Q: What sequence folds into this?
């Protein structure tokens, strides 16, 4: 992953090239597999450690790729739980690229462009979901 000098330590805003890829080539290198997307999502959601959404425990073991097993309530906690990626059939690589296209384009991305660029069959629902995600990303 290419890295750029981090922002001022008091500034908590994400920095392109450091917290997320700044160019499409970097994006495709960072997020070439669903496993890489899961690892990034895990880091973004729980930078220190997992907080169980069921019991607020802060101790968990691995339950497989992208899944934790909470030591408090013993429930499975997928990294995608509570996100727009939960229980989706669309690969995370596709979701990540759609969101990256939305957030990196100043003019926005049309549904037609998104449908043409990404392997999405029903693009209107996915377009609406990606728009919601980009709004959440920009406002966080």
A:
């Amino acid at each position: 992953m290419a890295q750029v000098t981090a922002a001022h330590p008091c500034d908590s805003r994400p920095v392109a090239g450091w917290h997320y890829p700044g160019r499409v080539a970097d994006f495709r290198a960072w997020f070439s597999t669903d496993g890489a997307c899961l690892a990034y999502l895990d880091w973004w959601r729980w930078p220190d450690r997992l907080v169980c959404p069921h019991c607020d425990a802060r101790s968990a073991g691995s339950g497989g790729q992208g899944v934790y097993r909470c030591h408090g309530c013993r429930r499975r906690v997928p990294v995608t739980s509570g996100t727009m990626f939960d229980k989706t059939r669309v690969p995370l690589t596709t979701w990540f690229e759609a969101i990256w296209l939305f957030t990196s384009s100043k003019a926005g991305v049309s549904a037609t462009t998104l449908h043409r660029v990404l392997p999405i069959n029903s693009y209107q629902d996915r377009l609406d979901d990606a728009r919601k995600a980009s709004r959440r990303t920009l406002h966080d």
About this structure: The chain has a mean pLDDT of 77. Strands lie at 60-62, 67-70, 76-78.
